[in-house]
Write a structure and sequence with these properties.
Two copies of one chain form a homodimer. Chain A has about 190 residues and is mostly helical. In chain A, about 75% of the residues lie in helices and about 0% in strands. In chain A, α4 packs parallel to α7 and α8 packs antiparallel against α9. Chain A binds a DNA duplex (30 and 30 nucleotides) through α1 and α3.
DNA sequence: AAAACTTGAATGATCATTCAATTTTTTGAT
DNA sequence: ATCAAAAAATTGAATGATCATTCAAGTTTT
């Protein structure tokens, strides 16, 4: 019935423990043993499932990237106009499930490691291209042809910057407010 | 005449070597020995001058923060209107001397370490507050009172996001174009 | 019975940091 | 200027701590 049962359970537990551990100590500082402890397991077990610490980060990011993609598609499903779909992309970025202090921290750690890892930079490139492509598709129906690229880049920079600052401030994230602010910014940019 | 001569020379050499080393390998990966080699010296010498690896990063950031401050003040000197001073803040952020691949990388490494270091997070907070205060002061003369805070935050997020993406793309930075784009964004935001 | 899972302990590599010994530079008195 | 003493600078090598990773020996699940 479920051949991959335990493997899947452990996978998710370790990813969750990694998110917590990375948030609390940073990826470079947190040890395999600490992450394992968060998951009630042993460092050797993580090695068994993931192979290496870097692969663990990669798996964790695949998880977050998957959630982002899912959040975006879910919102797309009920969006009928280009405006709505544009908002869907941005709102997904600040989804209640995604825009949390823990996940903001993990993103920053990811950004700091990606330039030095072929596998991580590939993940980053793919995700960025996907978001860019969605923004591009909608914006081309809203703003003049010659400013589509610039607005796309601006929106991406803005969203990344908000995540970055959220990680620095450490405190609470307010996803609803972030979506509201982003909407205001968007209205200014696409007039 | 120059009591601190050698100390100052070494200080600057090591900071320059750190910028290069961190850009090439990341702060967590680069070793004291590698940085020392870049500076034609030894790891022990860095310890003699800076005390620890973290203090070396701190000194390097103080250097970059100082350059940012100087770039801003220099542009302020010739700015006469609130508009001009606002642009001065933004242009300083994308100054030819600052917006380079090497320095963008160092900033990202700094961001990833700041949340876990009291001294680094303090530096971050101080710099951010200073930039915010300048933006705030000019924006309050340009945009409605109730949107000053939001626009300030937006501009900061945008600038950070641009630096972040520059570090990811690894390639060349185009400071003049970055200033041009920022100006366009600003025009939209402050209308 | 086999396959999957688990982990304590060993391994080995890595490095920041320290230290002792040496060289270089500065100081200040003549 | 000269020189000796002090201060500053330099570094090879030792230290010690940290950890990811491996492995062998078990346990649990299929």
């Amino acid at each position: 019935m479920q051949r991959r049962r335990i493997r899947d359970i452990r996978h998710d537990e370790f990813v969750a423990a990694t998110i917590r551990g990375v948030h609390e100590r940073g990826f470079g500082q947190v040890t395999m043993a600490e992450i394992a402890q968060q998951a009630g397991s042993s460092a050797a077990s993580i090695a068994y499932y993931f192979g290496s610490k870097e692969k663990l980060l990669e798996a964790t990011m695949r998880h977050l990237l998957g959630m982002l993609k899912a959040a975006m598609l879910a919102r797309y499903a009920t969006a009928n106009t280009a405006q709505d779909r544009l908002r869907a992309v941005i709102d997904a970025n600040f989804d209640d499930q995604l825009f949390t202090p823990e996940q903001c921290s993990v993103w920053v750690q990811f950004w700091s490691h990606a330039p030095y890892s072929k596998r991580l930079s590939r993940l980053h490139r793919i995700n960025r291209a996907r978001v860019e492509s969605h923004l591009h598709a909608e914006l081309r129906q809203i703003v003049p042809e010659d400013s589509v690229g610039a607005v796309t880049a601006t929106v991406q920079a803005y969203m990344d910057g908000v995540w970055l600052e959220a990680a620095q401030s450490g405190g609470a994230c307010d996803p609803a407010d972030a979506r509201r602010q982003a909407r205001i910014v968007l209205e200014r940019l696409v007039v």
